[in-house]
Request: fold
Amino acid sequence: MPNQNGRVFGLTFLCPILDDETLQISHDLQIRDYLATLPTDERSPFALAPGTHVARLVVMDDVIYVGMPAHEEHLASKYLVFETNTDADLPGYLRTLFDAIPQHIDAVWSHCTGYPGTADFDKLLAYMKACQIPTTFFFAAVNDKSVTETLLALQTQRAVAEFITTHQGMAPAQLQREFLEFYQALQSLPCPAAGGKLPRRVIKTGGHNE
Amino acid sequence: MSNINGKLYAMNAITPMKPWKTWILRVIFFLLWHIKSKQQDLINLSFIQFARWVIIPRNRFPSLSSGQKQETLTYDYLLFFSNFNGTWNQYIDAFSAVLSTGLNLIWRWSEKFPGSVPVTGFKEYIARIQFDTDYYYTAYPEATANDTKAAHIVQGALTTLATQAAAQTPEQFQAAYLQFLLAVQTHLGDTGDAPAVF
Reply:
């Protein structure tokens, strides 16, 4: 299943962009203009809709001519490329986008040919299926963890480093007690926001090797 | 428009292929997918979070309405999308140095591919076939592929330690804690802002 590697899905879409020569600003430029205004941090639409590890949107103007003796050719349409690495397959993933960010889907895809809007999920799903290109080969460095699991693991890593630093040379009974308290507190922390920055760790220097 | 978000770089590339060569490449990808040992160099490089190759046959570009102009292409196309850590130059240099055999196997079917060694011609080819990203999002912009792998190792070791801790004597816990430290000590690197890229 090339669209899936372990628990991660690699979905690829090519959506033909409307071509209207009567417009002052073409549809592809309107897409680019809108994408330029979107935040890429924890306020990103993809952060608001859970389950996206990494995603990109690209306006593909044309294919590329690599020079003689290759044949020069051009696309009849421009395409919006949507490449995303997610925790769910197409129906499940699209449902999260549909529920969380319909206004952004409309703002981008309303410039695409045949886009049915977000009034009817089944129509939207049929449209995205028509635009989907099967991924031929998909590689994921970590393929068995969800976005939430990774964000929590990064939070844990930072907390553990801090705990180890501040508990060196402690008596076993106290260490055990404080470790159990630490673990319980860690379990109750909320998951960090996707797309955002993590709190900075204070790195103390001046150890024996410096 | 930016190809960079935090510590991640988005590369898009497209190359034309004669349709009969597409089938050879499909067989190669099929073997690469099923013989996991052949992916080991890609895994060991450890700075690629996600990557994919997508073959689009010349007559399979999506056609969504009768009003859309039909494509009249003679080539099939190979799309490559990569999400990697580090700079463009570091990436291409490492690809050329470590994965040259694999890269040649994949791209030799594309028109005018010069080979991945020497790297100068390879870089010129990549620069020609690359196109830029308009919007790029990552859920963990401050973490590299190695950071995420390390974090999951720490998470697993911590869970194991914690499930035993309450039932242990202090001395048993101390011994287990020391084993835990040995297991995680090389996986505690700090994440943070991406270095400035020039």
